[in-house]
Fold:
Amino acid sequence: METQYAQIDQHRLAYQTAGSPDNPPLIMIHGLGSYKGVWENTIELCKNHFYCIAVDLLGFGESDKPWIADYKIATQAKRVTQLADYLDIDRFYLIGHSMGGQTAMYLSANVAPDRVIKLIDVSGVVAARLVRPTTVWGYFTRHNISLMMRTVPIVSSLSNYLAVNNQTYAHDLFSIWFYDVKGMPMDSYREARDMFTRTDGTISFGAAFRAINNANLTPILPKIKAPTLVIFGDSDAVVPVRDGYLAHERIPNSDLFLIEQGGHFVMYEHPDEYLGAVAEFLGIST
Structure:
């Protein structure tokens, strides 16, 4: 899929499309440190039935990464609706992962509740708090590496190389993503690792992390009108699984699908169960 660009909010926003524009539109929003490629298997499932639009949020992937910008969840949600306007899309299906799930829920509750036909929240943040790292090394690598990359470029280059090519380093750095990181083939999430450790991605990482922690969605979830599917790994070590239960409790017309022994990236770790739940909710025959 070729990357395309839209001028949104005075910046270039990257996106990719698949499927016929005559099909119902399905907009996809990635999470923190991630990018539009996280939806590859979702797009393969949906492209014959939907017009799939996977966006790189401002500050991530191939979109612009300004040092000074508004990375708040509310503003990112507005940019997604502006992209829909740019593409001349009125109503759309919506799916988001992690921070993207938080953004999608905010959009569905506060920005454009009448424009969302159906909503899928995958491991989305609700109560504005991520799971705290359980080890000193985990805290160092996952929260302070961003600052070190900005001030010591060689750290970025070394981390990027090791994350992509060294199994021991990758297992430690990304163990928080999965229930069983050692069970994950290295190639299955290679591009995701590369994207997470890219130097230019550190520009927005800290601001986006703060934005997540400043957007408690609990009070606004009852405003979501769209039928909603909440998908969570029952062993998510990034976003607490209680956020999945909370979303299900607070969103009026919602279902909760828990994946046993699932971590944060269930689309990589348990693709069959994840895609089966998405297909059933969207009415896709598999």
